[in-house]
Amino acid sequence: MMPDVIGDLTALVRYPSVAFPGFPEKPVRAMADATVALLKKYGLSNARLIDIPGGYPAAYGEIPAPPGMPTVLMYAHYDVQPAKKEDGWERDPWDAFEQGGRLYGRGTADDKSGILLIAAALRTFDGKPPVGIKVLVEGEEETTSHIEALVASRPDLFSCDAFVIEDNGNLSAGEPALTTSLRGEVSCVIEVTTLDHPVHSGMFGGAAPDALVALIRCLATLHDARGNVAVPGLHRGNSGSGDYPEQAYRESAGVLGGTDLIGTGPIGDRLWTRPSATVIGIDAPSVKAAANILIPHAAAKVSLRIAPGADPGRELALLESHLRASVPWNARVTVQEVSSSPGFVCPTGDPAFAAARTALATAFGRPVLEKGTGGSIPLLRTLQDAAPRAGFVLWGAEDAALSRIHGTNESVDLSDLELTLVAQALFLTLLAKNRSSQGC
Questions:
Q1: Mean pLDDT on 42-55
Q2: Mind listing the pLDDT tens digit for each residue in 347-383?
Q3: Fewest CB atoms within 10 Å of the CB: 34, 60, 142, 286?
Q4: Buried b vs exposed e over 102-116: b needs ≥16 C-beta within 10 Å?
Q5: Structure confidence at residue 224 as a pLDDT band (50, 70, 90)
Q6: Is residue 415 classed exposed, middle or buried when 0-12, 13-18 and 19+ CB atoms within 10 A define those classes?
Q7: What are the angstrom distances between the C-alpha of 184 and each of 137, 163, 352, 421?
Q8: Dihedrals phi, psi of 95, to nearest 5 degrees
Q9: Among the options 110, 140, 141, 210, which is catalytic?
Q10: Which one of the listed residues 79, 110, 210, 269 is annotated catalytic?
Q11: How far apart are the C-alpha atoms of 30 and 18, rounded to whole Å?
């Protein structure tokens, strides 16, 4: 099956399905149609598009469960991050190519490989899996998603015994891992004003306060001297069961030689169970457009990844309070919320998680690592609320060391893709066998 899987994944990469505002709609909608066609080709005969008010459609389909068998909802997304060759790609990011056992191109890992994992699992059973199947492939995971409204209005579509989220993966290729937690995210925009108009830096500098300097001094208080987040009172999760080897992390992140990592404690904790603060944008004059003036107004967007289990409203309030208190010289300051989403803690005592662990270990022939991830998937809490007794399995063909999701030269390890497909087929088989055993 793998030649077909690789060929179809290569074909999906050709769609620049960037769902961000300001990008063309046509390729995103074409990708939605291609997803439905692929699912039908692999055995999901009733795959169809469901309109999402305010957003791009989701691909959906189902196969009823055999009598007494559980139902599994498998999730992926067809939208991707922006990509341009001039950003540093070795080749056209929308023209996938194989090299060294990996397939390169935007979306090969995140998350068009997830679509193929779902589709190929259906073909493994000739469209007649041993358990019930529901498939959801959304088109706005990378941007502001509107799918929560669909969950609220059609909870019947999401009723299941287990969710399989095909949007995660291993730390390194060949090393199987299950994700057990994700951080949440809150963000805000801080605006600082000191003057009612720009003034000459020579005539007025030295007494009149510069808004950009005031903003910089405020933002510098987000971290202590070691790089730990210094916002008082933020929640910290429990230490994880796994860690991220430093050299592998440095290579994956592209940390320059001689540059220190920030923060203290195990890298896994810094990435998975603790908050992290990032200034992701600043409104200020560019270097090219710089003039000898004091800046009257400056703004920045601050993103805070919050620990799994943290209350996003509380964490955002602490961040906003800290920013307001840290602006010097009694400058005028406003802080406005932009986003707020919770983290997620996977229920690891569920039968679905146990079956996934066995299936993954069998497919890869190695023990399975439990790890966290620093990214966020807000939909998970929404799904958990919709089906509170359902189990969760978070895995995929991505590997943190080399896949470079969201970055240049994104790729997927084709061996990991194949072994994860094997694991998924074993997982569905084990769920059916376990239910049959319970029935006896």
A1: 96
A2: 999 999 999 999 999 999 999 999 999 888 889 999 9
A3: 286
A4: bbbbbbbbbbbbbbb
A5: very high
A6: middle
A7: 21, 19, 24, 28
A8: -125, 90
A9: 141
A10: 79
A11: 11
| Spatial separation of the C-alpha atoms in residues 423 and 139, rounded to whole Å | 25
pLDDT tens, position by position, 273-332: 999 999 999 999 999 999 999 999 999 999 999 999 999 999 999 999 999 999 999 999
Q: Give 184-195 as a DSSP string.
A: EEEEEEEEEE--
> 């003034």: which residue's tokens?
199
β-partners of residue 282 are 300
Token couple for 44: 């999901």
Q: Indicate the Cα dihedral angle 255, 141, 118, 154, nearest 10°.
A: 160
Would you call 119 exposed, middle or buried from its count of C-beta atoms within 10 A (0-12, 13-18, 19+)? Answer: buried
In this structure, what is the dihedral angle of CA atoms 33, 39, 41, 44, given to the nearest 10 degrees?
A: -130
Question: What local confidence, expressed as pLDDT, does residue 440 receive?
Answer: 41
Res 135: pLDDT? 98
Residue whose entry in the numeric block shows the structure tokens 């457009």: 289
Report CA dihedral (249, 253, 257, 259) to the nearest 10 degrees: -90
Type of residue found at 360: L
What is the DSSP secondary structure assignment for residue 225, as one 8-state letter?
Answer: T
- The pairing of beta strand 169-170 with beta strand 398-399: parallel
Whether 79 is catalytic is: yes
Is 141 one of the catalytic residues? yes
Q: What is the DSSP string of 367-419?
A: PPEEEEESS--THHHHHHHHSTT-EEEE--SEETTT--TTSTT-EEEHHHHHH
Please list the residues that pair with 58 across neighbouring strands.
Answer: 50
Structure tokens given for 124:
């493994």
Cis-peptide, bond into residue 111, ω within 30° of zero: yes
